[in-house]
Amino acid sequence: MRAPVAAAVTAAVLAASAMTTSPAQAQVQHPAAHPPLIPFPSQFQLDVMSKARKVGTSMPTGWWDKMSAKPDAWFASDEARAIGDNIISWQISETGGWPGGDVVTQPFRGEEGQIGWRGHSTSLYRFDQMRFLARVYAATGEERYRRSLDIGLSYVLDAQYPKGSWPYGSHPSVAAHNARYASFNDDAMVKAMIFVREIATDPIYAKVSAGRPAQAKAAFDRGVAYILRAQIVADGKLTAWGAQHDEVTYEPRMGRMFEPPAISANESAAVLLLLMGLDNPSPEVIRAVESGVAWYKASALKGVRIDRPANGDRVVVADPKARPIWARYYEIPTNRPIFAGRDGIVRYSLAPVELERRAGYAWYGDWGDAVIARYQDWAKARI
């Protein structure tokens, strides 16, 4: 059954458990207030992709998880030094960050432009590169690794906005009109905060620069404060978070044209898991967690599943035996699941969205499962 039929099925569920929501602390910005739709891919993207390295030069996903398990002595080896030198060669001098893609197997040779294999000109927080440099520096004590790492740490810490959030990265492309926003998208801010907490607590970073741990601790605390202020309020009740928020006003904001300002069940999961990982949570943190988990429980969609036919499409199907799932985006103020294509038009079912976006984006998921499971342990620990 196609999404319009499934929408009728889920409507009863939402009517029974829906929250009447309202924007957080200010009016939500309408897509019309953003720059005109940019064709996809843009000419800028085509230009940089034509110069990008091939996928084969990038490390596979999870490369650091495997390398981090190696003994300390290995990080003084010629192999580790070569990887460390490759990482240094890709560091972007203007920012101290690194390009998209984990290109660590080969050095930057200069002809590509520091764009990475995906064609990103974006300067990103490549935390695993910095973790690797930290281990190599600890094993060798060589100044070039310390210097590169310290520049990278400065980039991460200096990127934080005064009110405590982090943007996705440094985007020189004018096409990225949403680049300045506080970004929970792809767990960007949460990942930044996890790394900043490492800087504050791992002794190796004090050896890189004596003042870094205290600076990082203060930055982490500001990040938590921003998260608490940005939690979306609905009818006087706290709910969850959007994928992007205004870095000054805390309002949910639009990302790409198919990413409306809304409550996001995807991005909010990592935020809540981060908060539940805090030692000695404050009353404000406890309230935020309790409210966020309540929103997940109230917003679960029951009686539907997502099928993927042979043509790659995504189809919403009625199934009374299906496990609860969540839509990625919930409308403010109705808490109805919403969807959008590259035209930016918000729709209430998935079927009208063009195939490329319908099949190429995570519109539904089990994101609430991890939150609710972790909450059970978290709540017991507080009894």
TrEMBL record:
InterPro entries per the UniProt record, alphabetical: Pectate_lyase
GO molecular function terms listed in the Swiss-Prot or TrEMBL record: pectate lyase activity
Enzymatic class: lyase
Cleavable signal peptide: 1-26
Pfam families xref list: Pec_lyase
EC number per UniProt: 4.2.2.2
Keywords: Lyase, Signal
Domain of life of the source: Bacteria
UniProt protein name: Pectate lyase
Classification of source organism: Bacteria, Pseudomonadati, Pseudomonadota, Alphaproteobacteria, Caulobacterales
Gene: pelA
